[in-house]
Fold this protein.
Amino acid sequence: MKTPLDTLQTVFGYEDFRGQQATIIQHVIDGQDAMVLMPTGGGKSLCYQIPAMVREGVGIVISPLIALMQDQVNALLQLGVKAAFLNSTLVLDDVQHIEQQLLNGELNLLYLAPERLQNERMRSLLSRLKIALFAIDEAHCVSQWGHDFRADYLQLSVLHEQFPQVPRVALTATADEQTREEILLRLGLQQARLFISGFDRPNIKYSIEEKQNARQQLLRFIQREHLGNAGIVYCMSRKKVEGTAEWLCQQGISALAYHAGMESAKRQEHQQRFLREEGLVMVATIAFGMGIDKSNVRFVAHLDLPKSIEAYYQETGRAGRDGLPADAWMVFGLQDVIKLRQMLSESTASDIHKKKEQYKLDAMLALCETVNCRRQFLMAYFGDQMAHACGNCDTCNEPPETWDASEAAQKALSCIYRTGQRFGVQYLIDVLHGKSNERIVQNGHDQLSTYGIGKSLEDMQWRALFRQLIAKGLVAIDFEAYGALKLEGACRPVLKGEQALFLKRSHKKTGSKQKTNREKRVMFVSPEEESLWEALRNKRKELADKQNVPPYVIFHDSTLMEMLDLKPSSLEQMAGITGVGERKLALYADEFLQVLCAEG
Ligand code: ADP
Ligand code: ZN
């Protein structure tokens, strides 16, 4: 029998296991239960695929993502692994064929939609099979607290009752402890061994810019760093999704829209195109993305602020699953802060739940406003301490300047106080600027001591200051009173001059700054190699189209990149490339060698 390492090398074409993979795989091969928490792209799939191949019988993989089963199975077939899926998209003939394969013991892996298990016929079929293991993918779907709850997941505990001797492995990328506890409880996995990996994604560069003209900023970001790359742009509303996609297209960027309000066929089509074609930008609401395992998404952009760091981290985690450099880029501004605070204030959830949401939102805002390393902040939030700043985020690369805003903050706070805590940001700025509009005069606010004392700061600077006061909880927004600002107790020391307030200096990006950005950027492909890179990608696309599979199912970007770097010139050298296993060597090596030879 092949060892796990043999399987990794000959079938998958990878040299070594990563992180805890080897331990997890051995544990499951030994027939034990496991709960695996690993960040997206960490390599969870191998943790059940290899045990399923090594152990006797078929590995049953429960996955909620029926749209993706086809691709997952295709990827395995490409590797020569005997795999199939059963879900509602199949016709009866196919189902019968797969059932026969199962009964003949011909499959290593079977992907199954959770609702199938309710089916009596399915249960009796399973009882006649030799089962290697059960893998419960996206296990957080069993948690009612989480955002992806699936009722069908609740009854997965029957697996254990019906097949107590079959090892089970639950997998998820959702970090928080509450969800984890709930998974263990509901799946009856309290005895399972826990494998928790660090959540860092070192290849993702985090940047958060101040919102000025969001669309233009996005366009510049794509043009500067990601022309021709695949990416996801998240927006809050359906309308904004459509508007942004259309606008990007007008600007010459191939973009598609995706949101839950679209007709399902259209949505399907866009998702398929995103998976299959190179270099498309998907503009979407959060309805898009759960389990999208396209490995070469090069950037995830947010035009609106997510509700929590968990959501932000999960969404940005869809970038760079292949381990190559990728960007998580976001713009945010005063309006985002106000909008999210408003959603919270209108929420009908219980008080305790609201408190939790409030805490999560505050953490999200603090991430945006921090002047320290973003990654350190993120890791700390998930309970991992990082000793050093990361060197791969915006605040590390260009440490933001701070300024002593104590005096300006005092002016702003006393302006809120003297106008009776009844007015919104723009009005307050007008008073600080000493504008003499009708409303101000009628209210007699041109007579206040704070009238006109803020002329030294521009509109933008005042907005940034108010934003940071709100984010820091010194000032609250009263939504019952149309967004009027009110003082919070926490502002007292600042107001009295007992506590200094340093804020991030907001600056418009200057030309020279952009240049340093470009110089610092890790270039994927040098200009001299661009044509060879394109030729390799074209070959991959040609092979993928022929079989009607997405390109990354043939080879990941990282594999093509290694070919570009090492320029293998023989089958033997080709076999040494990461991601080239025995079957892909036999199927594709010659074709890629020809490309390398012709262009090289
Ligand atoms: P997850 O499901 O945890 O998000 P995947 O299982 O899809 O991650 O793996 C992410 C990527 O890393 C895939 O392209 C996979 O082939 C690759 N990978 C996983 N394990 C290894 C390994 N030991 N060596 C090299 N590449 C690996
Ligand atoms: Zn950093």
